[in-house]
Each structure stands twice: as C-alpha cells, then as structure tokens.
Amino acid sequence: MSKSFSRRKLMTAGFTAAGGVAGLTVAARLASRYGLIPPDWAGVYGPGETLTYAAQHILTSAHSLAREFSRSEISRVAQVSGEHPQTDPYQSLFSGSFADWRLAVDGLVARPASFSLAQLKQFPSRSQITEHICEEGWSFVAEWTGVPLSYVMNLVGISPRAKYVAFFPFDEAWDSLDMQDVWHPQTLLAYGMNGRDMPVDHGAPLRLKVPRQLGYKSVKYLARITVTDTLKNFGKGEGSSAPEGGYSWYAGI
Ligand SMILES: Nc1nc2c(c(=O)[nH]1)N[C@H]1C(S)=C(S)[C@@H](COP(=O)(O)O)O[C@H]1N2
Ligand SMILES: [Mo]
Asked: Which residues form the pocket of ligand 1, taking CB atoms under 6 Å from any ligand atom?
C-alpha cells in the first residue's frame, strides 16, 4: 500500500473521530496497523492520545526542526521547575562536583557503557538556542550545549529491535522517547546552558533536551539510559511518569 494512501486513510479516520467514540476506535485500529500507537494509549484518553501522536507523526517530518533563536533572544530569566534531588546518591555526587557521576547506557545495545562527564564533553558537541515550554504555561529561550543523543546511541551500537529509549533521573520523573526523537539532531544530552556548565537547578550534571516536545520530556539529573523494545516493564507501563499525573506521554509542540 502506498504511503500517501495510508496517510489519507488515517486522516480520514481523524475526521471521523470528531463524530464520536466509534470513530476513535477506528482511528486507533488504523494507528495500530501503521505503528502509531503511543505507550499510554490504554488510559482514559487513550484513543485521543493515539490520534494526537499519529497525526503529529504523519503531518510533521521526522527531520523537522524546532525553531532556533539568535543570541540576542536568550531570556534574561530562566524559570526552574522543581527542586534538585535532596537525597543520596545525588547529594554526594553533587558535593564531589560530579567527578564520580557516570551515565550508564544499557539495554538493547552491543556495548553497554558508563560515561563520565569529561568523556561526554570530549564527544562532538552541538549548541542550540531553543525555547523551553512548560506544560504549566511558562517558557524561556536559552542556549543548550551537549552531545547529540544519536552520537551516543551509535557509540554503544543499538539493536535493530530498539523501539524506545528510556531516561532515568535521580528523582522520579523518568521518561522515554521513540526512535524518531532519539535520532533527531536537536535531541541532546546537555551538560551546558547559556555558555556555562549545567546549573544544578536546571539538571546538573546532564539533562535531556528535546525541543520538539514540552518541557517535561527534557529529563533533568540523568543517571541511566536504557534502550528497549517495549516500555511495558518500566514503571506502570505507560512510557513515563507523566501519564500518572494526567499528562500524555507524547508532548509534541
Ligand atoms: N528529573 C527531572 N526532570 C525534569 C523535571 C523534574 O521534576 N525532574 N521537571 C520537568 C519539567 S515539568 C520541566 S518544565 C523542565 C524544567 O526545566 P528547567 O527547570 O530547567 O526550567 O524539566 C523537566 N525535567
Ligand atoms: Mo514543566
């Protein structure tokens, strides 16, 4: 079946969905056939989440870029969401200026690895000035510097079975991305912000930066990254901690 035909069919299903639950069920079935089901599809808003995720994947290209800004547009104030982890092991790593901190990368990879901050800083870096948009309604523009996630994925050699990469911080706010966002050039493992090391409030020593999605996907205080073919066995099986708080796993903007 041609790609354009399946796209048209799915969009038609989207319009049908406006007509009610029957339409949503049809849309969900089509989305399943074309691999467009998000991991939190079974919740209260399940069919609706599927439509959002499917529509965005169909209507935006895998390579479309989030807007980048000029230096003069960097916000003077960068809001902070939440507190840095107050317990060990984070507290003692912080006391030691993160010299003993490591990023573990495991799961469906040929060469599981553990990277120090110094190692990550030696890899090719990218800087981008993008807008951080929180689901609570505030936003700011800042420059983030880091190593593209794709570079690290290539280094550890991920399996063709990989469907998602899950990100575990030192607090509870874990999340995951599908491969489209994993390979996206603006998806960074960021250790710098506005020309300095990542401030503690903003996720030191390393955070994820995903400018095509809402702020909560950009996990701060990273400890471990796991490559997987299913998210069913992590947390409540909904792909991230967000659905537990009523937010959707996919937060495209
Ligand atoms: N580990 C962790 N990552 C997190 C959060 C968190 O509480 N813990 N909050 C998220 C939310 S809701 C937002 S808006 C951004 C805030 O990033 P900032 O504090 O750098 O502005 O981080 C996201 N990443
Ligand atoms: Mo947020």
From this structure: 79-82, 132, 134, 169, 171, 173, 202-203, 215-216, 218-221
pTM to 2 decimal places: 0.87
Cβ atoms of residues 98 and 197 within 8 Å: no
Phi, psi of 103 (to 5 degrees): -100, 115
Q: For residue range 39-74, what is the model confidence (pLDDT) as tens digits?
A: 887 765 667 777 788 888 877 777 799 999 999 999
Counted residue by residue, the chain has a size of: 253
- Among the listed residues 166, 170, 194, the one whose alpha carbon sits nearest the alpha carbon of residue 101: 170
CA–centroid distance, residue 16 to ligand 1 (Å): 36
Q: Is the peptide bond before 205 cis (omega within 30 degrees of 0)?
A: yes
Amino acid, single-letter form, for residue 41:
W
To which CATH superfamily is domain 71-245 assigned? Oxidoreductase, molybdopterin-binding domain (3.90.420.10)
**Residue listed under structure tokens 């399996």:** 159
CA distance 197 to 145: 9
Domain range summary for the chain, segments of one domain joined by +? 3-59, 71-245
What lies within 8 Å, CB to CB, of 205 at 6+ separation is 93, 98, 101, 117, 191, 197, 198
* Tally of CA atoms within 13 A in the half-sphere of 235 that contains its CB: 21
Q: What is the pLDDT of residues 123-139, one digit of tens each?
A: 999 999 999 999 999 99
3-state secondary structure of 147: strand
Protein residue with its CA nearest to atom 16 in ligand 1: 81
DSSP 213: B
